[in-house]
Structure formats: C-alpha cells, structure tokens
Design a protein that fits this description.
about 375 residues; mainly beta; DNA Polymerase III, Chain A, domain 2; 9-stranded antiparallel sheet; 8-stranded antiparallel sheet; 6 helices
Length: about 375
C-alpha cells in the first residue's frame, strides 16, 4: 500500500469514524480502523465498526499501490490530527505503516486486515430519499428525547415509520415524548417501520455539506443502510415492539397556553440553577390570571422565582410540577417565536407544540407532570 492525501481531505473522516469505535473492547481488532487503498480507482476506503454500527467513507487520493491494513484507530486519529496541514505520505513496508508529513514521521505497527469484522452488504430496493435539511430537522427534534435503559434498549433508539405520504420519527424515554411528522409525497412502494440507535442518526449528520442535498435510507432486513455522498452507515435494527406512545395524542387538551419562547426558556434556565442534584430537576409552574410564576426550592440553597406577564391562557388557574431539563430540551429545538402548551388537569400529560402554520411538518412533544411535595 502506498498513497498520498492532503491532511484537510483526510482528517475529518478519520476523526469522525473513530467515534464509532468502542472505547473498551475485548477484541483488539474492534478498536481498529480498516484502511483500503485502490490504485485503479485512485480511492481509499476507511471502515470502523462497533459490531452494531458500521461506518464507511470512500475518499479520493493519489494511490500508487493497492493494499489493505488495520491500525488502532484512536492513536491513528490523534496522529493525523497533530500533523501539519500539508500532504501526508503513507507507505506500508514489512508490516509497518510509514506516515510522513513534512518533517514529521511515524512508523506504526499494523494488523492483518483479514481479521476485521465482515462488512455487511446491501442490495435492497426498499429505500426512501430525504432532503438532508428535513432529515436533520427530524433528528434534531427527536434525538434528545431518547434515554438509556439497560432493561429496554428501545428507549435508546429512534422509531421510524415511513410511507409514501407520511414520514414519522419519534423518541421517548418513558417520561417525555418527541414526534415529528412530514407529509411529503415520496417514491416508496412498501411502508418502512423500524427502530435504530440514535447514535446512527446523529453520526451521519457530521458529514452533511452544502454540496449534497439528499440522504437515502435503505431497509435491508435486520439492518438499515444510510447513504450520504461518500458515506455509508449500516446499522442493526432493534428487535421488538416500540412503545405505543401515540395513545397520549388520542384526545387533545382543551386549554391553550401561548407564551414567548425566549421568555419561557430564560426564566426556566435561571430558576433551574437552584434545582437539587437529582434526576427530577423539579420546578413549580403556576399559571395564574395575570402571570406565570416559575419557582424552584432547594432546601440547602434557598428558593428562586421568575414571573412572566406576557402570555395568553384560556383555562382556569393551575399549578404543575415539571422537570426543568425536559422542558428546556423542548424549548431549545422549537422553531417558532412562541410556544403552545396544551394543558388539561394538573396530573395530565402536557403537549408542547410549535405555534406556527407549517403544513409540511408536524412537531409534537409531551412531558409528564411531576408530583409537587
């Protein structure tokens, strides 16, 4: 193997593909990056995997000799990032990889590439094409609501349900729900329904550019393949049934609270500084006739309170307990200047919505109220 490539054309791929590699693994080869060089195509291929997700990048390079090697990914990434911004020369000699860039030189031990896990193949015609900006917005409005539950890995995944006329992404950690629907007419013969790791969706976004607009999702049996430009990500689906979250949307609450998003976010953020160090992050929100009062009480530090007097509400006064971190996670992604809360009783789940007239996309959030002491 012998090739050269400019650092700026290479470092971005090495850096991000290394993030797929598990930090701890009993298999040395799982901590490696597979590097293939093809002289007939003047291309190199980088592959990493955590055995659930496989990421592949194909890059143009000046390839003089073909070859295939594996090399520990973390150290390789550190070295590439530290090199000068210049042309890097790679030359494999006697089971060593020689890396030269200006006055820097490394001689690195390599591993037999035949030991690398088998790269999954795909050929299914069941696929859907998204505009990358729509895709990114769907991911941004759902990925934060995933959780970590060792007893139910579904909570760490994003639910996808795509048809020719409606496309849904949703996520829940059992305490909050985020759902996005788009209503594009797409060329899709059979509906797709699956749950995949949130890591897969957020990973491929790192490669989005202004030059390529479309991302393709391919349903490949037990796997899903995402293709964007020169990047391919192959991910396992989660086996099992996703929680039936949609039941909370069966009946819309009658009362509507509309408030400026920035006012609500800033007030919540400041008051939540007094939250106790626990998972509840509880704040008391009192919706009164003339004001919204947001309060936090910490037995060790004291109390904090903010009021908002510019809002509209068509219901009776009420007091609810909310997780401030969950509330802020919704307010951070809402696009509209105002946020719409659909509220029932103080014990009912609360809907949080964009307050806009976008007919091409529906974004809905739900948070469960907390019991106040």
């Amino acid at each position: 193997m012998k090739f050269s490539i400019n650092k700026k054309d290479f470092v971005h791929y090495v850096q991000h593909l290394t993030q797929i590699v598990p930090q701890k693994s009993t298999m040395q080869i799982a901590g490696c990056i597979l590097l293939d060089a093809y002289s007939e195509k003047n291309q190199i291929r980088l592959v990493t995997t955590d055995l659930n997700i496989t990421a592949i990048a194909t890059i143009e390079a000046n390839v003089l000799e073909s070859g295939s090697i594996c090399i520990p990914s973390k150290k390789f990434s550190d070295i590439i990032q530290a090199l000068p911004d210049a042309m890097i020369q790679f030359n494999c000699i006697n089971d060593k990889l020689d890396v030269t860039c200006e006055k820097s030189n490394y001689t690195l031990n390599i591993i037999d590439s035949s030991l690398f896990p088998i790269i999954p193949e795909y050929n299914s015609e069941s696929r859907i094409v998204f505009d990358k900006n729509v895709f990114a917005k769907m991911v941004a409005n759902t990925s934060f609501a995933t959780g970590v539950d060792s007893t139910n890995p579904m909570f760490s995944g994003v639910y996808c349900n795509f048809s020719a006329t409606e496309q849904i992404m949703a996520a829940t950690d059992s305490k909050r729900i985020a759902e996005v629907k788009t209503f594009a007419e797409v060329n899709l013969a059979e509906p797709m329904e699956f749950v995949i790791p949130v890591k897969t969706l957020t990973f491929i976004e790192k490669f989005f550019t202004n030059d390529v607009d479309d991302i393709t999702l391919i349903d490949e049996g037990t796997k899903v393949v995402l293709v964007y430009n020169n990047i391919v990500v192959i991910t396992n689906k989660y086996a099992g049934k996703y929680p039936i979250y949609s039941v909370v949307f069966k009946k819309e609450h009658e009362n509507s609270l509309i408030v400026d998003k920035v006012l609500m976010k800033d007030a919540t953020r400041r008051v939540s500084l007094l939250n106790a160090e626990d998972d509840r992050n509880i704040i008391k929100v009192s919706v009164l006739q003339n004001e919204i009062a947001i309060e936090a009480i910490n037995n060790e530090l004291g109390a904090g309170k903010e009021t908002i007097d510019n809002f509209s509400f068509d219901g009776e006064p009420l007091v609810i307990g909310l997780n401030s971190r969950f509330l802020l996670s919704f307010l951070n992604v809402i696009d509209s200047d105002e946020v719409l809360f659909k509220i029932g009783k103080s014990t009912d789940a609360i809907w949080i919505l964009n307050n806009d007239d976008d007919d091409s996309m529906s974004i809905r959030f739900v948070v469960m109220p907390l019991r106040l002491e």
